[in-house]
Automatic annotation (TrEMBL):
Superkingdom of the organism of origin: Eukaryota
Membrane topology reported for the UniProt record: Multi-pass membrane protein
GO BP terms: iron import into the mitochondrion
Species name: Cyclopterus lumpus (Lumpsucker)
UniProt main location, coarse: mitochondrion
High-level lineage: Eukaryota, Metazoa, Chordata, Craniata, Vertebrata
Gene Ontology CC terms: mitochondrial inner membrane
Segments annotated as Solcar repeats: 38-126, 136-220, 227-321
Any GO MF annotation of the entry: ferrous iron transmembrane transporter activity
Residue ranges of the region described as Disordered: 1-35
Reaction catalyzed: Fe(2+)(in) = Fe(2+)(out)
Transmembrane segments: none
Ranges of biased composition (kind: Basic and acidic residues): 19-31
Family indicated by similarity: Belongs to the mitochondrial carrier (TC 2.A.29) family.
Identification of the protein by name: Mitoferrin-1
C-alpha cells in the first residue's frame, strides 16, 4: 500500500521573486512550494480518492495474491502464474469472483488513506523543519511514513481480515455481513486485529522504503518539484515494486493470521486460532521452509507496481488540482 503529496516533492524555497514573465504557468506551477493554503482537508480528500483507486483498479490481482500465499492450497486452487490464476478463477467461479471483498476494501481504504496522507504531510514537514531546516530530509520522509502507517493500519486491518477471508477459495461466507457476523460470533472482536502487530511490522519498513525510494526517484526525475505525471508514475511504480519485494515474507505471515487457513493449521495440529508473529513465522517455516515466505511474491509485486503508481499520480493530481482552486 503505498503515497504522499510531497513525497515527490521537497519544499522548495524561492530565493528570488520571479518577474511576471518568469512565473510558471498553471501547467507547471510549483504546486509543491505552496503549502500555506493547502489544508489538511485537501490532503485527506486527495488521499482518500487515491487510496480507493489504488485498491480497486488492481483488486483482482490482490485476490490472486491471497490465494497464491496459501500454504496448503486446495488442488483446484494451485496456480502457476497470475494470468493463469485469473483465467481459471473466472472460468470456474464466475467473472465477478476476483472482485469478492472489494466492497469492504473500498469502505476501509477511503478513511485509512485520508488519515495516512494527512498525517504523512504534517509529520514530514514538522520533522523536516527540525532535521534539515525545512529542506528535504529522507529521514523525515521515512519517519513520517512510519507514523502515518500506524494510523492507516488501525483503520484498515479489520477490512483486510474480512477481505482476505472472502478472497479465499471455497470461502464459507455468503457476503460481507455474514463474514463480519461469523467472525465476531466465533472468534470475537480481537480477530480483526490479530494480525495488527504483523501488519505494522511489515508496513512500517514497507512505507519507509516506499517513501524514501519515491523521494530519491523524484530528486532524479523531477528535481524542480513540478507537477509532472510521468515522474510520479515511474517513481511510484519503482517504490511499490522494491517495497513489495522486500516485505513479502511478512505479508505471507499476515495472510496466514488473517485467513487462519484451516488445512494448514490442522496439519500442524494447531487447535483454536493461530496468533502471534513468532508463532506464525515458525508455522510458515515448518509448512514450507524458506520458500514459503516468498509465496505470491510475483503477484504481490505485479499488484503493487501499478497500484502505487496509480495512487501517487492520482494523489499528486488531486493535490495540484485542489491547490489551484485556491491560488495564493
Amino acid at each position: 500500500m503505498e503515497l504522499s503529496s510531497d513525497p515527490a516533492a521537497a519544499t522548495v524555497e524561492m530565493s528570488q521573486v520571479p518577474s511576471k514573465d518568469d512565473e510558471p504557468s498553471d501547467s507547471d506551477g510549483h504546486y509543491e512550494s505552496l503549502p500555506p493554503h493547502v489544508s489538511v482537508a485537501t490532503h485527506m480528500t486527495a488521499g482518500a480518492v487515491a487510496g480507493i483507486l489504488e485498491h480497486t483498479v488492481m483488486y483482482p490481482v490482490d485476490s490472486v495474491k491471497t490465494r497464491m500465499q496459501c500454504l496448503q492450497p486446495d488442488p483446484n486452487a494451485q496456480y502457476r502464474s497470475v494470468y493463469q490464476a485469473l483465467k481459471r478463477i473466472i472460468q470456474t467461479e464466475g467473472i465477478f469472483r476476483p472482485l469478492r471483498g472489494l466492497n469492504i476494501t473500498m469502505m476501509g481504504a477511503g478513511p485509512a488513506h485520508a488519515l495516512y496522507f494527512a498525517c504523512y504531510e504534517r509529520v514530514k514537514h514538522s520533522l523536516s523543519d527540525v532535521i534539515q531546516s525545512g529542506g528535504n530530509s529522507h529521514l523525515a520522509n521515512g519517519l513520517a511514513g512510519s507514523v502515518a502507517t500506524v494510523l492507516h493500519d488501525a483503520v484498515m486491518n479489520p477490512a483486510e481480515v474480512v477481505k482476505q477471508r472472502m478472497q479465499m477459495y471455497n470461502s464459507p461466507y455468503r457476503g460481507l455481513l455474514d463474514c463480519l457476523q461469523t467472525i465476531t460470533r466465533t472468534e470475537g472482536l480481537g480477530a480483526f486485529y490479530r494480525s495488527y502487530s504483523t501488519q505494522l511490522t511489515m508496513n512500517i519498513p514497507f512505507q519507509a522504503v516506499h517513501f524514501i525510494t519515491y523521494e530519491l526517484m523524484q530528486e532524479q526525475l523531477n528535481p524542480h518539484r513540478l507537477y509532472h505525471p510521468g515522474s510520479h508514475i515511474m517513481s511510484g511504480a519503482a517504490a511499490g515494486a522494491i517495497s513489495a519485494a522486500i516485505t513479502t515474507p511478512l505479508d505471507v505471515c499476515k495472510t496466514l493470521l488473517n485467513t487462519q487457513e484451516n488445512v494448514a493449521l490442522n496439519s500442524m495440529n494447531i487447535s483454536g486460532h493461530l496468533s502471534g508473529m513468532a508463532n506464525t513465522f515458525r508455522t510458515v517455516y515448518r509448512l514450507g521452509g524458506l520458500a514459503a515466505f516468498f509465496k505470491g511474491a510475483q503477484a504481490r509485486i505485479i499488484y503493487q507496481m501499478p497500484s502505487t503508481a496509480i495512487a501517487w499520480s492520482v494523489y499528486e493530481f488531486f493535490k495540484y488540482f485542489l491547490t489551484k482552486q485556491h491560488p495564493i
